[in-house]
Design brief:
single chain, mainly alpha, 3 helices, elongated
């Protein structure tokens, strides 16, 4: 029973994360698109681990040691990419709050005058 519930949960999780990520990528806000890309990377990476694990827990057990090892490796790489993107978003948000609205307007004004 536990294997069935875990399999259903994993399937719902993967489909929802990847679907929501794709919908976010279609948005117009650049930060919203970045979070959508992060969600797709996270869901795709997790699928490389979760699908072989669930496949292995099926009644007919096949030898999937290589697939599990590769899946764990791919998941760790995509999690690293996800965490790097998440950290970059956090640093960007902290910097923009620390600068304040007046400083951002001043910097935007300099860019407009230098390009003219």
């Amino acid at each position: 029973m536990q294997a069935i519930v875990e399999t259903v949960f994993d399937a719902v999780y993967l489909v929802s994360v990847i679907t929501i990520g794709i919908l976010m990528i279609r948005g117009s806000n650049p930060q919203f698109r970045l979070f959508g890309l992060m969600a797709v990377v996270l869901g795709a990476g997790d699928s490389f681990h979760l699908i072989p694990v669930r496949w292995r827990s099926a009644p007919r057990v096949w030898k999937l040691h290589r697939a599990l090892g590769l899946g764990k490796w791919i998941t760790s790489v995509t999690m690293t990419i996800f965490m790097c993107c998440s950290t970059m978003c956090g640093v960007s948000a902290i910097r923009s709050r620390a600068e304040g609205p007046d400083r951002r307007r001043l910097r935007a004004g300099r860019r407009a005058s230098s390009s003219a």
